[in-house]
């Protein structure tokens, strides 16, 4: 009962994913980003498979190998929906026979859309188009893909949660934003991104070189002393 998008930004080298679903707290269960790939576990989720996929990709550099490692490690794999998108733009995906229709995955340029319990077969292609046709930061493009999927019909049940995860060149998240429960989670996720975007680079500097960080009150959107 989830639809998600993984994507790559060729200009910045960022990798990321965005996901939404009709249950609460989706960011705790679906999607992880590693150094060179994005992995998904959906439908009847198993977050332990994320680490399996990331480790297999780190060793092999191959999305198909990573996907098979996740499949081999899965309990009752017929309930799982899995995906891998790596930095090269190659993707692999699997949808188990017990996943609720409409379900599947679509690969686009530098992106992978994957979903289940969708209202119709137009949702995933709409997400790909939303990502490919949007300009700007990777985070904005990922959210645009979710918006496009919702506009095309989204899920059969009302959405409740959404999440965004973007990594750059460092081993910590550039953006890790979650809407755990909302009547309009994608809209709220977009609002969070717009609030976070002007602060994101300053938090990278704070992590790497706090002596060079600009004081909070000089950064747009910060409260003094934050």
Please, could you describe this protein's structure?
Helices cover 32% and strands 27% of the residues. It has 226 residues and is α+β, with helices and mostly antiparallel strands. The protein has a single domain (2-198), classed as Glutamine Phosphoribosylpyrophosphate, subunit 1, domain 1 (4-Layer Sandwich), CATH 3.60.20. A 6-stranded antiparallel β-sheet has the order 7-8-1-2-9-10, covered by helices on one side. The longest helix is centred in the C-terminal third of the chain and has 24 residues, at 185-208.
Features of the shown structure:
globular; 27% strand; alpha+beta; 5 helices; 226 residues; 32% helix; six-stranded antiparallel beta sheet
What's a concise summary of this model?
The protein is an alpha+beta fold. It has helices at residues 48-60, 63-73, 123-133, 138-151, 185-208, and strands at 2-8, 15-21, 32-33, 37-43, 80-86, 91-95, 104-108, 111-116, 161-167, 173-179.
Radius of gyration over all CA atoms, rounded: 17 Å
Largest sheet: 6 strands, antiparallel
Q: Any idea what the CATH superfamily is called? A: Aminohydrolase, N-terminal nucleophile (Ntn) domain
CATH class: Alpha Beta
SSE string, helices as H and strands as E? EEEEHHEEEEHHEEH
The shape, in one word, is globular
CATH topology: Glutamine Phosphoribosylpyrophosphate, subunit 1, domain 1
| Order of adjacent strands in the largest pleated sheet | 7-8-1-2-9-10
Distance between the termini: 37 Å
Q: Please provide the count of β strands.
A: 10
Query: Architecture, CATH level 2?
Result: 4-Layer Sandwich
Secondary-structure class: alpha+beta
What percent of residues are in strands?
25-35%
Total of domains: 1
Number of helices: 5
Helix content: 25-40%
Unreliable residue runs: none
- Average pLDDT number: 95
């Amino acid at each position: 009962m989830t639809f998600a998008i993984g994507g790559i930004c060729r200009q910045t080298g960022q990798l990321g994913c965005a996901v939404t679903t009709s249950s609460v707290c989706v960011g705790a269960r679906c999607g992880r980003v590693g150094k060179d790939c994005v992995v998904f576990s959906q439908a009847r989720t198993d977050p332990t498979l994320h680490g399996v996929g990331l480790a297999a990709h780190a060793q092999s550099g191959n999305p198909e190998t990573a996907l098979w490692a996740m499949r081999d490690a899965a309990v009752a794999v017929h309930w799982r929906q899995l995906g891998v998108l790596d930095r090269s733009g190659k993707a692999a995906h699997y949808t188990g026979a017990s996943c609720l229709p409409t379900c599947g995955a679509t690969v686009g340029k530098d992106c992978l859309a994957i979903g289940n319990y969708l209202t119709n077969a137009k949702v995933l292609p709409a997400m790909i188009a939303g990502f490919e046709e949007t300009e700007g930061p990777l985070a904005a493009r990922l959210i645009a893909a979710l918006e496009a999927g919702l506009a095309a019909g989204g899920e059969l049940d009302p959405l409740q949660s959404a999440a965004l995860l973007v990594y750059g060149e460092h081993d910590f998240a550039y953006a890790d934003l979650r809407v755990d429960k909302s009547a309009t989670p994608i809209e709220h996720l977009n609002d969070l991104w717009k609030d976070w975007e002007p602060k994101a680079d300053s938090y990278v500097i704070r992590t790497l070189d706090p002596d060079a960080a600009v004081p909070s009150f000089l950064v747009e959107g910060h409260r003094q002393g934050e």
